[in-house]
Design goal:
Largest sheet: 7 strands, mixed
CATH superfamily: Vaccinia Virus protein VP39
Mean pLDDT: 81
Number of strands: 9
Low-confidence stretches: 164-180
Distance between the termini: 19 Å
Number of helices: 4
Strand order of the largest sheet: 3-2-1-6-7-9-8
Order of helices and strands: EHEHEEEEHEHEE
Number of domains: 1
CATH class: Alpha Beta
Helix content: 25-40%
Shape: globular
Length: 180
């Protein structure tokens, strides 16, 4: 099984995934972990964290939106499970992006830090046909207007995305979604 976190930060969700598989009595050696992180400093911490947790085989690369660096031939790799808590309100630049076909439902405005829905589309495009995903986003992403609202409605309808729950114990309210 291959698990991918396109916004892995220091690698915590990937490490927890491996630990969960172990706790369920499964063989974690049948698990392949992949991650990407845009910040060079955080990427280095993630690589170190993988080594400290005895997971040196994890593939951790840089940037996600601009250039998904985990290739599968001439395209980007697809995974069994995609998990992420993407950075909120990040900018992006369409002109420098590779693999534009990942963004089936269109592009959010490039101004005003609107990359949230771009991360969602990348995650959907990175799933194998029967893949599963977990996404943690601030609830405000679902209540935007203008071009983002149209984009959001299209992928919500196409992916059957449904809110699972709201975790109010966090510092801010987030919704957790899954593809059903």
């Amino acid at each position: 099984m291959e698990i991918y976190d396109p916004t892995c930060g220091s690698g915590g969700m990937l490490i927890q995934s491996l630990q969960y598989v172990e706790e369920q009595g499964e063989d974690f050696r049948n698990l392949a972990l992949y991650g990407q992180e845009a910040s060079g400093t955080t990427w280095a911490i993630c690589k170190m964290n993988m080594i400290l947790h005895n997971i040196p085989s994890a593939t951790i690369e840089m940037d996600t939106l601009q250039d998904p660096l985990i290739p599968d031939g001439a395209t980007w790799k697809k995974f069994d499970i995609v998990i992420a808590n993407p950075p909120f309100s990040q900018n992006y630049n369409k002109a420098t992006m590779k693999f534009l076909t990942r963004f089936t439902y269109g592009f959010a405005p490039e101004t005003g830090k609107k990359a949230d829905l771009m991360f969602v589309q990348h995650m959907v495009a990175s799933l194998k046909t029967n893949g599963r995903w977990l996404l943690i986003m601030p609830h405000g992403v679902l209540f935007r207007g203008g071009d983002e609202r149209k984009l959001e409605r299209e992928w919500l309808t196409a992916t059957s995305l449904k809110p699972l729950s709201v975790y109010r114990q966090l510092c801010f309210t987030e919704r957790v979604f899954r593809l059903v």
